[in-house]
Amino acid sequence: MSCNHDETLLDRYLDGELSAALRLRVEANVQSCAHCQRYVSDIHSIRQALQYSSARSVANAPLDSLWETIRMQIPNDGEENPLRQTPLLGERLRRWWGPPAMEWALGGAVAALAVMIGLWTLHTPPHATTTPDATASVTHEFVVESYEVSVGTVIIDVDPQHDMPAIVWHFVDEEEDHI
Amino acid sequence: MNLILIAASLIMGLSSDPVLNTDSKPVHCDIQVIHATRGDHHMDPKLQPIARYLNRSFGTRFQSFKLMNSSRLVLTKSQTGQESLPNKTTLSLTYLGVERALLRLDMAVGGLKTRVKVHDGGLFFQAGRSYKKGMLIVAIRAKLAR
């Protein structure tokens, strides 16, 4: 049998695409033709090497995280996603708070509570104690709204820093000898 | 529903807090009548809590400070309390309520009438009148009852 080294035919042979009769003829040719025999051997070796390499890559692939990676890449279009196993934060909050009416009621209650706390803070006078050690920390803010005097002189002595008590002086003329 | 009830209870509890209704609370006016004189340095031990203020305010003229009397007037809003002073005059205090965290008081003593506002827990002095070779100092501390 003459051989024209038809590599396409040899490829189809290696791929198992030939009919039984043609496969027998090619096998006989490969046995007798050194060129075709070397070609078939080379291609077979290459294919084996590729198969081994692929199998090793698959074996070492991090398949455990494959699904998680895929799931993260699924776009979130706002619709219910059957593939999503973990509910979104908003969904979880809605489940926890209950129906929308309950959300509004609780929101109003929290807002009212915040307002009440604010008012309470504004209207709470600073605490004071009578212990000697606490005296220095008490502010002595003092304001005179009005005064009137039937005898003598009035002097209001106010410390603008409020760290000293104010003095309401009332002097009567005939008594001023001690000043 | 339980959460709503809890929130409502908190709001009601805060709104009924007595701190919010300070006008309904009485004010305590602690009054100390002090005789200040020249001479040897002396500070009555009972005056130690306010000794710093006495020395800074009156120390250039007087060196001796003796506590003659101390008392407390508990006044509700619009109520007047009186305290007799050693110089035969009378100190009158009327509590007028709370305004912007300041306690409003009317004070009258020996021909002087004045309306003042003082910080809750704050101290002020009324002074100037002669007494036994010295001067009477009235220390008044007003604070809301807790």
Describe the structure in your own words:
The complex is a heterodimer of chains A (179) and B (146). Chain A has 179 residues and is mainly α. Helix content of chain A is 52%, strand content 11%. Chain A has helices at 7-14, 20-32, 34-60, 66-73, 89-97, 100-123, 132-135; strands at 142-149, 153-157, 166-171. Chain A has a two-stranded antiparallel sheet with strand order 2-3. In chain A, β2 and β3 form a beta hairpin. In chain A, α1 (7-14) crosses α3 (34-60) and α2 (20-32) crosses α3 (34-60). The longest helix of chain A has 27 residues, at 34-60. Chain A is rod-shaped. Chain B has 146 residues and is α+β, with helices and mostly antiparallel strands. Chain B is 17% helix and 52% strand. Chain B has helices spanning 2-15, 48-58; strands at residues 27-37, 42-43, 64-75, 80-84, 90-99, 102-109, 112-119, 123-131, 134-144. The radius of gyration of chain B is 20 Å and the shape is globular. Residues 16-20 of chain B have low confidence and may be disordered. Chains A and B meet through α6, β1, β2 and β3 of A and α1, α2, β6, β7 and β8 of B. β1 (142-149) of chain A pairs antiparallel with β7 (112-119) of chain B.
Give me a quick take on this structure.
The complex is a heterodimer of chains A (179) and B (146). Chain A is mainly alpha-helical and 179 residues long.
